[in-house]
Design goal:
single chain, 331 residues, alpha/beta, Rossmann fold, 3 domains, five-stranded parallel beta sheet, two-stranded antiparallel ribbon, elongated
Length: 331
């Protein structure tokens, strides 16, 4: 079983404080016109936003829970509700990947939509999923509607990196910050979505996911436990990871998903070694890595790994070459 897309998901684990804040605003009749929902990737931001949207579109009163059989739920899930607009990055057919930013012309369609009279006499709702991907032009397109909000209209910004938003956008929104799930909550989610997986593997997956059920499920789909084992092998041998083994790894990581997941796990592991050294909790492999590279050098290596992944995508670099280059950074 895999988790349904946020607009189709009737279930949200955790985040009781954020849900209570929304329910209280609905009950009190003092609904802010703009909401900023932040948190790590896959933690439940979009799922919460769609729960909020469904309740508004169904009349606004009552709990956020709604059965999947409800007419509003079905239309939101199908993307056919006339009073809901979702804005996100679009697919670049030429490059066969998602565009890096939300286009200005897309964002400019938000104010006219919110100013329309609700088709069903209730609310108009816009969800911007990935608001950190708004470029300056697309962000500025939203400012007017935030400064002079139309009646019975709500804008929700879903953001994994609030620091990338214009301060003028952040300051005009009510902020809901979603924390990583607690261990028990994450275990509950994984037991429901991955019932065929053993408890030990689910625990290992949870450790990699850092409180994010979305990240845990993505790792499960991408062979994350196997890739994490490869990262552990690198750290155990670093800084003298054999060049021939590096080439063997590169052959196994030719596919984009495996490459990005492995490099992301490696970058996190290197950054974790720096953090553990600072806290005085480094294990033997982490201590050896810091001793070989220095804290500053290792922090720079973590940043360089991230840049390497970006450059590989931007210039269509051979992923096998990128893997070898990334492992060489640890030498």
């Amino acid at each position: 079983m895999t988790a349904p897309a946020p607009r189709e998901n009737p279930w949200l684990i955790g985040h009781q404080a954020a849900q209570a804040a929304i329910a209280g605003a609905l009950q009190g009749g003092r609904l802010h016109h703009a909401w900023l929902i932040t948190g790590a990737e896959g933690v439940g931001k979009a799922t919460l936003a769609y729960r909020f949207a469904r309740r508004l579109l169904a009349g606004g009163a009552g709990a956020l829970d709604m059965p999947a059989t409800h007419p509003v739920f079905r239309r939101v899930a199908a993307g056919t509700h006339a009073d809901l607009l979702t804005v996100e990055r679009e697919w670049d057919e030429k490059k066969k990947r998602m565009k890096k930013q939300i286009a200005a012309e897309t964002a400019r369609g938000i104010p006219p939509f919110l100013h329309l009279t609700p088709a069903e006499g209730g609310w108009r709702v816009v969800i911007v999923d990935g608001a950190e991907d708004l470029n300056p032009q697309s962000a500025n397109a939203l400012l007017k509607v935030l400064e002079e909000p139309p009646p019975r209209a709500v804008l929700m910004l879903i953001c994994s990196a609030a620091g990338r938003l214009l301060p003028t956008l952040r300051s005009r929104c009510r902020h809901l910050a979603l924390a990583p799930l607690e261990e028990a909550e994450l275990d509950q989610a994984l037991a429901a979505y991955l019932p065929e997986m053993g408890s030990a593997d689910r625990a290992a997956l949870a450790g990699l996911a850092e409180g994010s059920p979305g990240r845990a499920l993505a790792l499960a789909e991408e062979g994350g436990l196997k890739l994490a084992g490869m990262v552990a092998e690198v750290l155990a041998a670093a800084p003298d990871f054999p060049l021939l083994r590096a080439y063997a790894f590169s052959d196994a990581l030719r596919e984009q998903a495996a490459f990005e997941t492995f490099m992301g796990l490696l970058q996190r592991a290197v950054a974790a070694a720096v953090a553990a050294h600072v806290r005085g909790t480094a294990d033997a492999a982490q201590a050896r890595l810091v001793a070989a590279r220095s804290v500053v050098g290792l922090a720079e290596t973590a940043q360089a790994l991230g840049r390497l992944v970006d450059e590989t995508e931007r210039v269509n670099m051979d992923r096998r070459q990128a893997v070898v280059a990334g492992l060489a950074l640890l030498r």
